Amino acid sequence: MQDPLTQLPGYVLRRASAAALARLNERLAPLGLRHIDVALMLLVEATPGLTPSRAGRVLDIQRANMVPLVARLESRSLMARQRVDGRSHALRLTAEGRSRLSRARAVVAHCEAALLRPVPVKLRPHVLPILMALWNPQDE
Amino acid sequence: MQDPLTQLPGYVLRRASAAALARLNERLAPLGLRHIDVALMLLVEATPGLTPSRAGRVLDIQRANMVPLVARLESRSLMARQRVDGRSHALRLTAEGRSRLSRARAVVAHCEAALLRPVPVKLRPHVLPILMALWNPQDE
DNA sequence: TATTGTTATACTCTATAACTATA
DNA sequence: TATAGTTATAGAGTATAACAATA
Q1: What does pTM read for this prediction?
Q2: Residue A133: CB partners within 8 Å, gap ≥ 6?
Q3: Which chain A residue has the Cα nearest residue B18?
Q4: Smallest CA–CA separation between B51 and chain A, in Å?
Q5: Least CA distance to A49: which residue of chain B?
Q6: Among A70, A133, B91, B102, which is least packed by CB within 10 angstroms?
């Protein structure tokens, strides 16, 4: 018998994603971070002053779910909130946050490299374009 | 500002997977099925008599989590369990399960097609090989 | 009116530990 | 001793509704 699911790109996409995520989280755990923390920190580093709402829109995280995420990073002194408005907060990394992120970035780079390693060298340039295309499907 | 995360295959992999899964579940909902139900049904169809334990190993689902999954399909008369052993159960699709699965398969085919549509035709043959490679990463 | 941050809440998915009965 | 099925449970992750304060 042969597993019929491995013929379905969508299924393999899910399995590959779940496996990669699990390994990344495993390697980030010693830093006290999860993948989602690093995603937000990378985004805030690239866009200082970003608000939680806007960050949530970029990361596809609901406003309500940003609250515990930001609070957790703030409570660990990795991120700081600053009122910019009567209702908006500007997010910035603290010095400790930047230093933690540089270590996390090394972990991410390691995992990204491990992810690509089994892809034949000739196909590697196609990986990101293909994944970007899969991210943006057209329903008819 | 540019989103630094879209340069990371691992991140795009996750976003693509989550988006594809959400759309699939949305389209399966009218059939009363979720993606995981269809995955199990496809597997059991291809391997009649499979036990929940073995199915779980193929699908990467814990033994304990197979229980409510199989129970739900059984309670809807889509799948049947048969004792084969003092401790093992053989899983099979019922006639209703097969008919429901044929409708689900059409939904899956539609979603898979929508997933691949934005990929340039020349790159499409590389999609599955690349995803299979990403699924099986080598850590060093 | 629309948006931000927030609380509360519920639901799915997943992981672990422990138990029984069988092989 | 190892495996199958099961129960109970806890933790992520995610989604929705509602509210106050502000734009």
Answers
A1: 0.97
A2: B118, B119, B120, B123
A3: A14
A4: 14
A5: B1
A6: B102
